């Protein structure tokens, strides 16, 4: 018999090689968490995440699940694991017991990613490694137009990394929101799932269009992969945040 727990996790992407453990890579978020649980419980576990974030990508609301051979209190799992995770760049914000049919990745209804831009004339010493500083003038109207164009169902073949293993490149963007503040432009992307690096490449294309590096025709050609082989610019990882994972009957 085993016991399944869902975890809500926050981490600083610049300290990790990404979520997923890889033999030749530096430390991953997954590997760091699994080691913390081993230290805490003496159980070897495998943690499954809702989103496999790349190196440098941050998370405020990553969700994962893990199975243990024994039952543990939520307080012990959170406080105990966080003791072994101190100063590591990752912390468990919450945990709860879930049914065995819950899967952090496959049970997700949709995912929310936020991309943060700094558009002022000078880079921020406080946010330089937390948001992408765009030096060129960003046309807000063109940025909003690009956001509207991306919504809906498209073949996003031009918006994925060459290492992407997805066999189906059709994805549906339910919403793309743009919020302007004094320092930041925040763009939120809502979808059930994304291709590898899709969000960063969509952000790159939006900025190319908003800074008038490409025309509307060229932007639309990105969304017509059979007619176009050029890929959009990939926005830097440090501006991207996995903000939240939404489930039908599951709330942290």
Automatic annotation (TrEMBL):
It is an enzyme of class 5 (isomerase). It comes from the Bacteria. It catalyses: uridine(38/39/40) in tRNA = pseudouridine(38/39/40) in tRNA. Gene3D superfamilies: Pseudouridine synthase I, catalytic domain, C-terminal subdomain, Pseudouridine synthase I, catalytic domain, N-terminal subdomain. One of its GO terms (molecular function) is RNA binding. It holds the Pfam family PseudoU_synth_1. CDD domains: PseudoU_synth_EcTruA (cd02570). Residues 10-106, 146-248 form the Pseudouridine synthase I TruA alpha/beta domain. Its EC number is 5.4.99.12. Keywords: Isomerase, tRNA processing. InterPro entries: PsdUridine_synth_cat_dom_sf, PsdUridine_synth_TruA, PsdUridine_synth_TruA_a/b_dom, PsdUridine_synth_TruA_C, TruA/RsuA/RluB/E/F_N. One of its GO terms (biological process) is tRNA pseudouridine synthesis. The active site is at residue 54. Substrate binds at residue 113. Homodimer. Belongs to the tRNA pseudouridine synthase TruA family. Formation of pseudouridine at positions 38, 39 and 40 in the anticodon stem and loop of transfer RNAs. NCBIfam families: hisT_truA. This is tRNA pseudouridine synthase A. It comes from Holospora obtusa F1. The gene is truA.
